[in-house]
Design a protein that fits this description.
mainly alpha, Arc Repressor Mutant, subunit A, three-stranded mixed sheet
């Protein structure tokens, strides 16, 4: 989140070559995060280093505080923990390692704590992750730029067969059918 804030504030001045992201566990972020490769620091948290000149840039609020748009294009704030968790995890889905444990770590909670909170809203973290992976898989397959094997890798599946089985369970059709229909 901190890197996102700096990137939006820096605007066109943003350069991943001039940005250093240090975190206690680089595996908690995608390998290529905003063009910067996170490096391992100590157990005392995270740090981001960038040119001091960026602090003097004019800050434009336009678009910064906008809430992501839904399918209809309307911008609505999350109304539940479930929506907030889904929104926060969406950028991590195709990092290839998003598990229940990693998702809970992103929120600074134990798996049990997050599971308990989601259960109160009638869902599970597993269901949310499956929905996010299904939606991302459909997007990637419809784009047509990625093979089924590549999509499986991006979503963290050990092989294309495991991914195809999961995809067919979600949608009722094999991923190769989506590729053929493009």
């Amino acid at each position: 989140m901190f890197t996102e804030i700096v990137a939006k504030c820096a605007g066109t001045s943003w350069s991943s070559k001039e940005t250093l992201i240090t975190v206690s566990d680089p595996k908690a972020l995608p390998g290529d995060f905003k063009g910067s490769k996170p490096i391992k620091g100590d157990k005392f948290g995270h740090r981001i280093a960038f040119p001091a000149a960026w602090l003097n840039l004019e800050f434009s609020k336009e678009g910064y505080f906008q809430i992501p748009a839904d399918e209809s294009g309307e911008r609505k704030p999350p109304r539940s923990l479930t929506e907030s968790v889904s929104e926060a995890l969406r950028p991590h889905v195709d990092a290839g390692f998003l598990s229940n444990k990693k998702a809970a770590e992103i929120f600074g909670l134990s798996e049990q704590q997050l599971a308990r909170k989601l259960r109160k809203e009638g869902t599970t973290l597993g269901k949310l992750l499956a929905d996010l992976k299904r939606n991302r898989a459909e997007e990637l397959l419809k784009e047509g730029d990625h093979s089924v094997t590549r999509v499986a890798e991006m979503l963290g599946y050990s092989d294309a067969t495991s991914f195809a089985h999961a995809f067919k369970g979600w949608t009722g059709i094999p991923p190769s059918k989506i590729k053929k229909d493009i």
